[in-house]
Amino acid sequence: MSQEHLTIWKSCLQIIEDNISPQAFKTWFAPIKPLKLESQVLTIQVPSQFFYEWLEEHYIALLRKTIRKELGPDARLEYSIIMENVGVSGNQTSSPYTIKIPASNRQSVKNPAVNMPVGMHETPIKNPFVIPGLRKLNIDSNLNPNYSFDQFIEGECNRLARSAGYAVANKPGGTAFNPLLIYGSTGLGKTHLAHAIGLEIKEQNPELTVLYVSSEKFTHQFIDAVRNNSVNDFSHFYQMIDVLLIDDVQFFSGKEKTQDVFFHIFNHLHQTGKQIVLTSDKPPVEMQGLEQRLLSRFKWGLSADMQVPSLETRMAILEKMMYADGIELPREVVEYLAYSITSNVRELEGALISLIAQSSLNKKSITLELAKQMIDKFVKNTAREVSIDYIQKIVCDYFDLPLELLKSKTRKREIVQARQIAMYFSKKMTKSSLANIGLHCGGKDHATVLHACRTVNNLQETDKHFRKYLDDLEKKLAIH
Ligand code: ADP
Ligand code: MG
Question: Is it true that domain 4-107 has CATH number 3.40.50.300?
C-alpha cells in the first residue's frame, strides 16, 4: 500500500500547526491518524464522534484549505471514527470499530455528540469544501463583544464584583479569587460581567482558551455526551479550557450527575491553575440542591455580590446605553425611567428600547407623556406603582427644594411640610411599609410617618392652599 497518505497528512499538519494554537493542535490534530488516500479522498481516523463534531464545527475551513492546497481543488476528506463500546457494567470492550463518515455529511450522524458552543453557526454544512469558511480557527469563546468592561457602569452596587472581575481578568488563575463567584438577583449584570472578564482576558492573552457557557448548556451537552457515550471527550474538552466562565450555576441544583462531572472538571482546572468564574442568583449559603463538596469549592475563592443600582447608577447606565446607540432623550424622560424602574437593569434597558421603538414607529418624539404611557404598559404588574424616589423628586420639583434637604433631618417648616407630603403619597401610592418610607425620608421611624399622614389628611380638610398642592401633585404623580 502506498504511503502517500502519510506524507500528505504530514504536510497538512505543518500548515495546520502554523495556523492554530499549540494547545489546540495538540488536542485536536495530534491524535488524528491518516488511513488512506484514494483518488483525492483522504481518510483520517479520529478518536471519537465528539472529536469529529468538534473538527467539523471549528476547523473545517482550515482543513478544507489545507487539503486543497496539498491535493488540489477536487480533494475530499473522509472521517473514520473509532467507536468505543462501553458495556452496561462500564467495562470497556476493547474492540474499536470504525465507521465511515464523509466529511461534513452530518445527516449520517444521528445525534451530534455534544452541542458544542459554537455561537452563531448551527447550520449543518453539507460540504466543507464548498461552503466558505465561516468559522474561527480556535474554540469559539462564546463571548458577546458588547458586554465589555467599557460598557459596564461601576457603582457602589457592583464595585466589589467588578474590581474582583477586573483583577481576575488581568491575572487569570493568578489571584486568590479562584473561583470568582458573582451572585445577585436577576438583571443586575452578572452575565455582562462574566463576558467582560472573558473579553479582557482574550484581549490580553489571545492564546488562552476562554469559554463562556451557561450552566444550562453545559448540562445539555453533558446529557448528550452520556447518550452518545462520549462523556470522556466531554470532560477532556472542558479540562483543556484555560478560563471557564459558567453562568447561573443555580441551574445545577438537583442535577447530581451534572454536578458530579462538573466537580471533577472544577478540580482539574483548579489544580492546574486555570481560572474559573461562576455566577449565580444566590449566595452559596442559599443554594439548595447543590452538593456540599461543590458548595465548599465555590467558597474557596471570592464570592462577590451585586446589588440593586442606586438612582445615580441607573441614570448612568441609561446614559451609557443611549450613547452606545447614538440616541438622545430629554433629561426628564431619562429621570423618569430611572426613577420608575428600580430593581432590574434588564428591565431598564428593555424600557428604553421599547420607548425608542415606539417613538420611531409612531414618529412621535419621546416626551415624558410617551414615557409614562409606555412604562405603564411595559412594567406590567410588578413595578406599576410609583417609587418613593420618584415621589420625592416630584414633590421637591414642585416646591423647588433640593432633594438632599428633604432627605435630611432639618426641621425647617417648609421642608418638614414637603417631607410630610412625600410620606403621605408614599403611603398612599406605594406598597412600602411605614418603616421603609421613614427610612427613605431622612431616617425617620414609622411613628413619624404615621403622624405625617395624619397631619396631611387634617390639613387638606382645613387648608384650601394645601389642598391645591395635593391636587397638583396627585396629577403629576398619576401615571396616565
Ligand atoms: P444578569 O445576568 O445578572 O441577570 P445581565 O448581565 O444579563 O444580568 O444584565 C442585564 C442587562 O443589563 C444587560 O444588557 C447588561 O448589559 C445590562 N447591565 C447590567 N448591569 C450593567 C452595568 N453596571 N452597566 C451597564 N450595563 C449593565
Ligand atoms: Mg445572567
Answer: no
Mean pLDDT score, 77-88: 62
| Under 8 Å between Cβ of 278 and 182 | yes
With a 6 Å cutoff on the Cβ, whether 152 touches ligand 1 is yes
191 close to ligand 1 (CB < 6 Angstrom): yes
Considering only CA atoms, which residue is closest to atom 26 of ligand 1? 152
Q: What is the mean pLDDT of residues 104-129?
A: 35
Cβ contact 426:391 at 8 Å: yes
Percent of the chain with pLDDT over 90: 51
How many whole angstroms from 350 Cα to the centroid of ligand 2?
15
Asked if residue 39 has pLDDT above 60, the reply is: yes
Q: What are the helix (H) ranges across 206-291?
A: 215-227, 231-239, 256-271
Residue among 345, 424, 19, 55 at smallest CA distance from 186:
345
Does residue 387's CB lie within 6 angstroms of at least one atom of ligand 1?
Answer: no
Residue 308 DSSP label? P
| Concatenated DSSP letters of 21-83 | -HHHHHHHTTT-EEEEEETTEEEEEES-HHHHHHHHHHSHHHHHHHHHHHH-TT-EEEEEEEE
Name which residue leads in pLDDT, 274 or 355.
274
Q: Pocket of ligand 1, candidates 162, 192, 199: which has the most ligand atoms within 8 Å of its Cβ, to mutate?
A: 192
The structural architecture, per CATH, of the domain 136-305 is 3-Layer(aba) Sandwich (3.40)
Task: Choose one of 146, 246, 345, 353 to mutate for the ligand 1 pocket test, by most ligand atoms within 8 angstroms of C-beta.
Answer: 345
Domain segments of the chain: what residues? 4-107, 136-305, 311-378, 388-479
Considering the domain 311-378 in this protein, what is its CATH number?
Answer: 1.10.8.60
Q: Which CATH architecture has domain 388-479?
A: Orthogonal Bundle (1.10)
